[in-house]
């Protein structure tokens, strides 16, 4: 079933509660906090502008950092975010320095059509009078109900927290008539949800990164859904060891070898593993290195996939219609071991040009496509690290489950 989106809502004259992801980095300038990077605020503008231009009265809120004590609060106030939002929107934004109470309620009641306010960091609710109570982060039912009572309808545009059941997403949704996805959330559901639920085939998944243990659930879930699952990065060496190859000092998780053996046996040619590695004598860009096919010499460690693996992976990607990529193929932070990861990024541009839907999730693969300058040539770059992982693991995300069906 399709989810309700902001475009399905009657917005005129309505108090529209909007959960946005304004968890932005801040910096101190002359003793004042300022927004250091406004990408997430810019990304939320289309949904906010849509609500305002359709006569909604927007009540915005977000978490910002982690609040573990009263002392954390001043440096994590939403005030500088409100200022930057006003600049970007080109209209006044009322900042309410509270998360509940008469001041907030009065300000909301004074809003006119097309006006916007933002209230304080939702995680201020996690510490009350110095005590850690996690009313927001543990979804205190009274808090969700209270926030819901402040508005008529709810728009959730914060995918980054969709894998958590918090008062500001699931809590409000449980207590309000309609919850709709904003444009950012809608795009994540369309691409990530589409890939795991109803992909155009062949569907190829590429999973990399350091540890098998972090990505094992994704690999298992995708082996059920995808036509091919390519595994690269540090985790591939546990699979190589499971095949009986020597891996030198490469990353290795002994307690995952049996699982790797079983996956290799069960998946057959659906699981595509590297056939060579760039092996180095130390974990450093200036290491002595060589291309190892099969066994890696004693004293060396695999830090990237080798050229034959790149060609193999490209051939698997060639006729793909849907591609999901999460995790680098090597230690891409070091230029000498970035080639495999960058080659995958370049190949994704080519398959996108040929009509495939290409989806990148996770901080490191996103950094790689940004480093290549090709992020805008792919179909979708997911904004939520943990949320996109859990989506690909096949888990139900509480923040998405809470959005009303059409
Ligand atoms: P993850 O957070 O699991 O996606 O892992 C990302 C990290 O894995 C990056 O910092 C990479 O440098 C690292 N990585 C990828 N391949 C290797 C490798 N062969 N050896 C050690 N670290 C690796």
TrEMBL record:
GO BP annotation list: glycolytic process
Binding annotation for (2R)-3-phosphoglycerate: 40, 123, 164
Claim: Repeat is one of the keywords in the record: no
Family under the similarity heading: Belongs to the phosphoglycerate kinase family.
Gene3D superfamilies reported in the protein's UniProt record: Phosphoglycerate kinase, N-terminal domain
Name of the protein: Phosphoglycerate kinase
PANTHER family: PHOSPHOGLYCERATE KINASE (PTHR11406), PHOSPHOGLYCERATE KINASE 1, CHLOROPLASTIC-RELATED (PTHR11406:SF23)
Pfam families in the cross-refs: PGK
InterPro entries: Phosphoglycerate_kinase, Phosphoglycerate_kinase_CS, Phosphoglycerate_kinase_N, Phosphoglycerate_kinase_sf
Places the protein is found: Cytoplasm
Superkingdom as given in the UniProt entry: Bacteria
Catalytic activity: (2R)-3-phosphoglycerate + ATP = (2R)-3-phospho-glyceroyl phosphate + ADP
The protein's Enzyme Commission number: 2.7.2.3
GO cellular component terms attached to this protein's record: cytoplasm
